[in-house]
Design goal:
With 224 residues, the chain is α/β, with parallel strands linked by helices. The chain has a five-stranded parallel beta sheet, with helices on both faces. Helix 2 links the parallel strand 2 and strand 3. Helix 1 runs parallel beside helix 2, helix 1 crosses helix 6 and helix 6 crosses helix 7. This is 7-cyano-7-deazaguanine synthase. It catalyses: 7-carboxy-7-carbaguanine + NH4(+) + 2 ATP = 7-cyano-7-carbaguanine + 2 AMP + 2 diphosphate + 2 H(+).
């Protein structure tokens, strides 16, 4: 009997790598999807390919988007500095509509593959205030997905899986380690060097470092 197929959004970071390991542990044949969207931290693309290969995906696809052409985020506009202190509200590292764009393309590939499951590593506990990481958003997108696709109309219910939604960073790391994840392969930093060295100061670095402390394990992150 062939495995059920699933599309896994993989950024090369800690969360999405854990989600990939979880999907594989549930018996899915995993098709990993990453985006070259004009992000300044391009080391994550190499990390995404690396973790997909090491964890054993069926196919890894990189889709090119030019979200930097509209800007509006410190991650896509070189004129907006990545903050190195905690900020209130939605931070400037929020990329306008990013998860909506990413999930829409994942939805299209899922239809092509005949996959009914999409996994994404969004989190509503240790997250940076992004509106497209909330449970209500994911539920609304899943409803839309089943209204807007041939698969949904023909009765093949599409599901958006968010296994990390209610987990803290320490719990995520513990779960990944139990599944054999090597977090030294991952890159989370918003301004990582091309070699994947982390700044240790941005919001993503702070959350990641705190997670390893909470998990009670050594931090394998390579810092600049």
């Amino acid at each position: 009997m062939s495995k059920k197929r699933a599309v896994i959004l993989v950024s090369g970071g800690l969360d999405s790598t854990t989600v990939l390991a979880m999907a594989q542990s549930q018996g899915y044949a995993c098709y990993t999807l990453s985006f070259d969207y004009g992000q300044r931290h391009r080391a994550e693309l190499f990390a995404a390919e690396r973790v997909s290969r090491v964890l054993g995906d069926v196919e890894h696809k990189v889709v090119t988007l030019n979200l930097d052409s509209i800007g509006g985020s410190a991650l896509t506009d070189a004129d907006i500095a990545v903050p190195e202190e905690e900020t209130a509200g939605i931070p400037v590292t929020y990329v306008p509509a990013r998860n909506t764009v990413f999930l829409s393309i994942a939805l299209g590939w899922a239809e092509v593959l005949g996959a009914e499951d999409i996994f994404i590593g969004v989190n509503a506990v240790d997250y940076s205030g992004y509106p497209d990481c909330r449970p209500d958003y994911i539920a609304a997108f899943e409803t839309m997905a089943n209204l807007a696709t041939r698969a949904g109309v023909e009765g093949n219910k599409l599901r958006i899986h968010t296994p990390l939604m209610a987990m803290g960073k320490g719990d995520i790391i513990a779960a990944g380690l139990a599944l054999g994840v090597d977090y030294g392969l991952t890159v989370s930093c918003y301004q990582a060097t091309d070699e994947g060295l982390a700044c240790g100061r941005c919001d993503a670095c702070r959350l990641r470092a705190r997670g390893f402390v909470d998990a009670g394990v050594d931090d394998p992150t390579r810092y600049a």
